[in-house]
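Bench notes, afternoon.
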Amino acid sequence: MSNLLGLRRLVIGMSVHRPVRRLSTMSPPFSPILSVQPTRALVDEKLKVVVENLPPGSPVTLHSLHHSEDEDYWEAYGHYVSDFRGIVSVAEDLSFGGTYTGKEDMGLLWSMRPVPGSRKGLRLRKMNICSPLLFNISVYSGHVTEGFREETPLTSALIERWYMAPGVKRIDIRERGVRGTLFIPPGPGPFPGLLDMWGGGGGLIEYRSALLASHGYVSLAMDYFRSQELESAELEFKYFETAFNIIKEHPQVNPDRVGIFGLSLGSLVTMHVAAESTIVKPRCCICVSGSHFYPHDRTLKEVIMEPMTNSHRVRVDENNHHIWRDLWKELLSDPSKKVDVGKINCPILLVNGQDDQNAPADECAEDIAHLMNAAGNGHLLTRVLYPDTGHLIEPPYSPHCRASNFRVAAVAEKTVTLLWGGQTKPHSDAQEDSWKKILSFLQQNLYSSTSPRAKL
């Protein structure tokens, strides 16, 4: 609520349902008009930002500001010059400077970064998906680079970006020992289903599941990493099988069309379950920034701690950010430390970045392909590898996070600043492209016809 109030104070009197007009400091007859459409949208929908009624050839700065749930401010901005008609179109015109350059229709979102003077190691993530992300889009006279909050904009508009579309149901799951949140698309169904698992930081992360439900998939965001409750590898494995069956048995789910979606550690679990379970038979799997390291008969805590025996291989960059990529490399040569991916018998999509500094994701993808080809199931594997892309490959237009503070769930008292990798522009392009490929892969394997899609 404080986020909402904070941004609304910046644009007193504004409506989020239509573009806002304000008098500028420019001489009459010029009164700039800012249009941002749509004003309410899902986070993966594109914006159209246009400024009209400027003097021809006028330098202006377009600026976006977000007040996060953690009470931090994030911003992005681009420098433009109006054309002979007095118009700036973000999709059609060049940004000559700022947090992004060139023709970038979504640069005001994906290039966001903490404002100067912010705390170190921040990462922008939405935890309360029942409320929108709010962005204040403003126009300033001239090419401004700092002090935006002290300047008066020529005009502003407030927009909402949602992970959860209208009609999507959010249901807390505390069933058969499984903890999580189930998201169900609007309509009677039946729908395909997905088990959605995040990484080694633990906790219940809901935003991707909410977005998947907005695209027509019943999705269970699972809280699975609490080792004090699952004290054996056997109990952990049954936990994943039970979670999969909760989705499969739901009356609004087509039981023959259930897949698994994992990121980082979640990808590792995805492959492990798909290869070893006699109960879980996923229709397809998606693994983002994942590896296939899973020593036999180990708990997840033990799996995470395994590479820590190679702690002498931890490197740091010039900012003292930890690089964990090399911790895992020695495991590549030991078959007993890896998932037997030759047993996977469903289509699997691997999405990795070549600049992943947290795990050797590209080497792992190559090894997975080699093992699957040797087992005769290589035809089931689709690989997508992006240059200059790091570990945290998020839904599109999410700000690139090159490094952030991270608490290892297996070692609760240990917090470090991890280098995830990637360069902002190519990483952001990879997020947009990979999401399209992910949705296409899911439609191909979980839907027999065109998938429904909720609209705001």
